[in-house]
Specification:
With 278 residues, the protein is α+β, with helices and mostly antiparallel strands. The protein has helices at residues 2-10, 18-33, 53-69, 85-88, 103-107, 180-186, 201-207, 222-234, and strands at 43-44, 50-51, 75-77, 93-101, 114-121, 124-132, 137-142, 146-150, 157-158, 169-174, 191-197, 213-216, 238-241, 259-262. The termini are far apart. The chain is globular.
Length: 278
Amino acid sequence: MVREQAMHEQAVIDDRTLEPLLELAHEAGQAILGVSTAQLAVREKDDRSPVTMADQAAQQVIIQGLARLFPAVPIISEECGAPPFAARRNWPACFLVDPLDGTKEFLAGGTDYTVNIALIRQGHPAFGVVLSPRGDILYYGGPGYGAWRRQPGENAQAIAVRSIDPKAMVAVASRSHGSPAVEHYLGRLPLKERINIGSSLKFCLVAEGKADIYPRFSPTAEWDTAAAHAVLLGAGGEVTDLHRRSLAYNKENLLNPSFLAYGDASCDWHAAIDAALL
């Protein structure tokens, strides 16, 4: 009980912890950029996804930094996994970390990869930080905080989802993980434009009003989505499964169900879901 109380009390983003947390994401991004892709040794994890020295370098920075800032709050990370559910089911808070989301894009020399750090409270995203290392662009926020975008040399700018224009609807989709189900869903929408991009930046485009909908019907893990989910919530959007339920975190199974991430909730995004997708 004492440990759980300490978790609860420390799991707060405020004036004391915000800037150090953002700086931690920046340091992780610098660790990634400090690794040459030409010299990378790549191995496959059990799920056949790649992991590199860049993932591991960013991981070390984040784990050490979070332990210093929030010593009582446990961490679940892509690169070091999670304790058994019996040990974490009663955690009031935890961090979900993906030190390098979009490793395939990174290895291909692209720019659309991110560092993801999310604070989870009672199974829901409370605050998220998403860094795009190439350009050092930060997205951060959460419910009750709003959502913000900051880039070097500029003050943070508040961001928000946009109102839907049925004649100018924009969808964002995964560059590396497409699926027939997503194509089927998008084919039922009156789209004007489609953007294919990697990593959690898809959520961020919705959060800053550059896209309206991001459907994902292929596997993702909680650390892939939690940070950007928080940012999108802060911007006025939502992420729900195909039955209209908000995504939950620190579940027994750390895989997410299929989901829709969207901005303007006045549009019934679920109406385009049919029996073929459920």
